[in-house]
């Protein structure tokens, strides 16, 4: 199964978990709801970060494999080395920004939840009376927007990367059939 299909499935699962987390956050009505929102938020943040990190490591690994496979072929080297760098330039900045914002949003949520649960020994929960809940909401919105853009860029780049690897492998196979020593990606 191609990685871009796996990514689409993981992103859809992440969207479901994020929507459930948001619904729980908007409708907080007691200590149990706060704890459930907190736990779902951690799960959503970990899944989102996992997806971004998976793609980052995929590009690090395939970039190295491509460089090794084409190092003895100047024509392929001229064509694909800049291409692999461009793929990384398109994916790494939005993925890293999305990761950073998701981590900040999660930390802000943890800070808000710790104040909610500690307030008045947990007897009354002043959800909107805490001054910084909107900061958590701001970072959540920023993290979701950047993750959405990063997910799109990642899926497109992974599809292109797969096509590029297939092209490299077929070119190397043709050269090997002609008797030229070549390594596949």
How does the SSE layout of this entry go?
Layout: H1 3-26, H2 31-70, H3 74-118, H4 133-177
Written overview of the protein:
The chain has 185 residues and is an all-alpha fold. It has one domain. The chain is 83% helix and 0% strand. It contains four helices and no strands. The chain has helices at residues 3-26, 31-70, 74-118, 133-177. The protein is elongated. The model has no long low-confidence stretch (mean pLDDT 87).
Task: Please give a quick description of this structure.
The chain is mainly α. It has helices at 3-26, 31-70, 74-118, 133-177.
For this entry, give a set of tags.
single chain, mainly alpha, 185 residues, elongated
Main sheet specs: none
> Which ranges are low-confidence, i.e. pLDDT below 50, for 5 or more consecutive residues?
none
Radius of gyration: 22 Å
- Total strand segments: 0
Question: Structural class per helix/strand content?
Answer: mainly alpha
Compute the number of structural domains. Answer: 1
User: In percent, how much strand structure appears in the residues?
Assistant: under 5%
User: What string gives the helices and strands in order?
Assistant: HHHH
Measured distance between first and last alpha carbons: 17 Å
Provide the helix percentage.
over 70%
Shape: elongated
Helices, by number, come to 4
Mean pLDDT: 87
């Amino acid at each position: 199964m191609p990685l871009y299909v796996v990514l689409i499935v993981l992103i859809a699962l992440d969207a479901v978990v994020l929507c459930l987390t948001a619904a729980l956050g908007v409708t907080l009505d007691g200590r149990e709801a706060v704890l459930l929102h907190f736990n779902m938020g951690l799960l959503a943040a970990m899944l989102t970060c996992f997806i971004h990190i998976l793609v980052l490591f995929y590009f690090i690994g395939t970039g190295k494999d491509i460089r090794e496979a084409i190092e003895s072929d100047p024509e392929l080297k001229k064509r694909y080395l800049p291409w692999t760098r461009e793929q990384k330039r398109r994916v790494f900045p939005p993925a890293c920004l999305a990761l950073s914002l998701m981590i900040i949003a999660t930390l802000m949520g943890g800070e808000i939840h710790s104040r909610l649960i500690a307030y008045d020994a947990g007897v009354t929960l002043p959800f909107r009376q805490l001054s910084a809940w909107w900061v958590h909401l701001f970072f959540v919105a920023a993290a979701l927007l950047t993750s959405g853009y990063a997910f799109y860029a990642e899926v497109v780049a992974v599809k292109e990367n797969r096509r590029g690897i297939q092209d490299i492998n077929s070119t190397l196979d043709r050269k090997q059939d002609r008797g030229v020593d070549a390594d596949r990606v």
